[in-house]
Amino acid sequence: MAGLGGMALDGGDPRLSAKEGEFAGQGIVAYTRPQMRALHDPSITFEEYHYYALQSRAEEDSNHGMVKNTQTRGFLSTIIPGKGASSDTADEKHLDSMIPTDINLSKPDRRASVTDEEWTNASRAVRTATAGAMFFLITTDILGPFGLPYAFATTGWGPGVALYTVFGFLAGVSGYLLWACFMGLDSYQYPVKSIGDLAFRLYGQWARYMFNILQSVQLLCFVAVIIISNGEALSEASKFKLCYAVCCLVWALAGFFLGQVRTLQKFGWLANFAVWINLMIMFITMGVAAHSPPLYSAAGSSAGYSVNPDLVTANAAGVFPAVTHSAGLPDPSNFGASINGLMQAVYAYGGCMLFTEFMSEMKRPHDFLKGMWGAQFFIYICYMLYGLFMYGYQGQYLQNPSYLGISPYNWQTAGNVLAMVSALIAAALYGNIGIKVIYNNIAVEFFRAPPLTQKNGKLLWVAIIPIYWSIAFVIGAAIPDFSGFTAIVSAVCIVQFTYTFPPFLHLAFNIKKNALRGGEGYDPVTGQVSLQDTGVKRIMRGFMAGSWYWNAWNVIYFLGALATAGLGIWAAVENLILIYAEPELNAFGCHSPLDVSS
């Protein structure tokens, strides 16, 4: 690769040919500048990405030090997004004024006139989120707390507590692994925008495609699941007088409007609101469950029915079995039902898939760990107590989501209304990230669509939102079994992004980073990368150098996660086969699946 002398020149390097505006690898021989590279240029090495990442981290630390010396931010500024927003907004406006608004930065031939400062400012401008916003964004999930009681009812006290604890700790470890990779690969020159970007920079194009496809599927399914859960809640609140298809469709239409929020920083207050709503729902359902019987009329969709129908089947006199509990698996002969239940618990830790996207919009990604560990601790303690409490009072009659299973109509409606609001916010967040993944990896890369920071990009965003939510509605409406749907999504997608992929990525990052010796690496003056060796010898040295035990752990962790995912997929498929053996209701009709009166 030729020199990088032009990086210091606003007008580009005079040594370059007339083809300077082309993508690297498509007619251009000499290295130009970062803004002249393809969005995913395979000729850029790990060493170059790592060099610029270190420069960006140094700048962030320097800026953070100046802010600390001039402004003291208290506890409220950490847990309440938007505290001190005036200075943040001023910084954003200052950066916006330095970015060319009349140039589509997605088109390489138009980036030739963009200076290095304008290019890096375009990256800085989207980094506005704080550690406090991260805490609420990570805990903004509707299915996590309300699917956990169902998980305990299918696994029992002992296995449920043990497995949820292990999954919680490992989810935190996975977050740390992703953070370490992000900090070493992201920069203002080459920003990491999704977990697929990490995969590309560590393994290549094939990994990026796999990650992006699977992530897009998961996020779309997340939105679909919430549309259906809200539809069920609305149908129950209306006493099944409103057509079930309309109950679901209304939430897809609501997503058309709420989905217009583009930046994660603006989601901060919505996420904050959603977390407190979820806590209120938990308190309501706990209080009602302690003073009223379960909703016996919905026993056919309970946890006990999935384990063994006899546990929830009324006798000849119409009397239902008493609430029961199990120290171990409720029915060891039906191992698949317990695995399906466990997959509901995994939903609580499904946020790992979004961690990279969250970090990409943080002003100082170093602070991500504060929000992440705080969120994981909150999720573990609060959700665990809630799940155990509900299992203690409702036992095998627990529903998924749990707020559908309380019997007094007035309290049932209150829980449903609150859950619908919270779920819609969560769905908007998932849709926001999902559309960004599709937009950045398809619209921008292949169709040269403008960035979302520009007017035309914002207009395209407005047009894409209804299409995305409509597709999510169709997918969710076609799946009759809510718990079966969530189980297959959890096993195929969530387990991978939360437990399988983080060690897979960190292993490659550690090997490449640890293999670097003194005198090796990227030279910004010449634009060349110097390596003393390549191949298997270098890989083995990178594996054994530095913290080799992290690499050994990553291998064990990766294989264990793969085995767990395989087990979950088997159980989910077996369950869906059983469900589809008989005709089932879906959201294309008017009869609600919760209405067993007819």
Automatic annotation (TrEMBL):
Alphabetized InterPro entries for the sequence: AA_transpt_TM
Family recorded in the similarity comment: Belongs to the amino acid/polyamine transporter 2 family.
Superkingdom of origin organism: Eukaryota
One MF term in the entry's GO annotations: L-amino acid transmembrane transporter activity
Any Pfam family the entry gives: Aa_trans
The entry's keywords: Membrane, Transmembrane, Transmembrane helix
Main location (coarse class): membrane
Domain Amino acid transporter transmembrane: 128-513
Entry membrane topology: Multi-pass membrane protein
Keyword Transmembrane (UniProt): yes
Location of the protein in the cell: Membrane
GO cellular component: membrane
Keyword Ribosomal protein in annotation: no
Residue ranges crossing the lipid bilayer per the database entry: 133-152, 164-185, 206-228, 240-258, 270-290, 335-356, 377-394, 414-439, 459-479, 485-509, 548-573
Protein name: Amino acid transporter transmembrane domain-containing protein
